[in-house]
Amino acid sequence: MKIIRTLDVTSTEFFDYLEDRVLNDVLENTGNRLNHSSVKGGLTYTKHYQKAKTDVVFKIDQYIRGEKY
Questions:
Q1: Confidence band (pLDDT; 50, 70, 90) for 69?
Q2: Which Pfam families match (predicted)?
């Protein structure tokens, strides 16, 4: 699937936001505080959804800041 959107932000702003969201999600779900350099291919964490009573494993397959996510 390919989605194309035009945003009124710089590439740096976009990737900073994306990394901040991932780092916050990891902290909330694992208690581990990571830094921006930790957001890369292979990063895996588990998120528990109480309402659905299920765990979901999130894995970043590929991530190249400014190019691919």
A1: confident
A2: DUF3284
Q: Is residue 64 part of a domain?
A: no
Token digits of residue 5: 């959107």
Structural domain that includes position 54: 11-59
Handedness of CA 25, 54, 2, 62 (dihedral sign): positive
Counting the structural domains of the chain, the total is 1
pLDDT at 3: 85
Centre a 10 Å sphere on the Cβ of residue 2 and count the other Cβ atoms it contains.
3
Q: Is residue 67 part of a domain?
A: no
Secondary-structure percent of the chain, ordered helix, strand, coil, rounded to 5: 35, 20, 45
Q: Is the predicted pLDDT of residue 7 greater than 90, yes or no?
A: no
